[in-house]
Sequence to fold (251 residues):
Amino acid sequence: MASQRIRHVYPLSQEETVAMETYVTESLRQGYIQPSNSPVSSRFFFVKKKEGGLRPCIDYRGLNAITVGFSYPLPLIASAIESFHGAHFFTKLDLRSAYNLVRVRGGDEWKTAFSTTSGHYEYLVMLYGLKNAPAVFQSFVSDVLRDLLGQGVVVYIDDILIYSATRAEHVSLVRKVLGRLVEHDLYVKAEKCEFSKPAVSFLGYRISTSGVEMEFLPVPTFSAFPDPEPVCHTILSALTSSLPAILYPCD
Fold:
């Protein structure tokens, strides 16, 4: 039976240690975490971001294995795509610190505990990596924008798409959505938002006034990969020199 237990601290490089200390200090200041006396612990580590820098992560596989699921449905993208027909203006919003806006239920904080070389901490807010985080946040934002969903608004976890046929309709709808978000202390990442565009990228699709199509990312050609032949020759040479007794020509 799966269980949650104390996990050893992952070794960190000097760069990661500095990043970890910065993350812990800032998270304590923001009220996201607090020192913990929890009897369990999950491992803390970093992954490199594609744009550079380090992203803090926690290995919650043990906790997730014993977590009761919350089955809140995500929107059907195929159904949403059909509703884009006739739209000429698109706005895409990306919510800032999305999961951190949801409080962990009082008394359950100890379950989120993690260890670092600087101490033992637990979360006061929801974070990425927890099993039910996407469904819980989808439910939260859907409740905030309930009467606008399907009326020119699509919500997919922390991404919001607003679409309209005319500029006047679009400006009015965008104001309604932003106003509703502010009422519930939800804010957007301005640098990741696009306002009143003829085309936007959303969930792997390119959506425009002319329709919807899959968005294809550039795939490296074979010429971009190193020639495997020298490697094969090196391996073959090593095998030939070290195992002469078992290498023989076939009939």
In short: The mean pLDDT is 85. The chain has six helices and twelve strands.
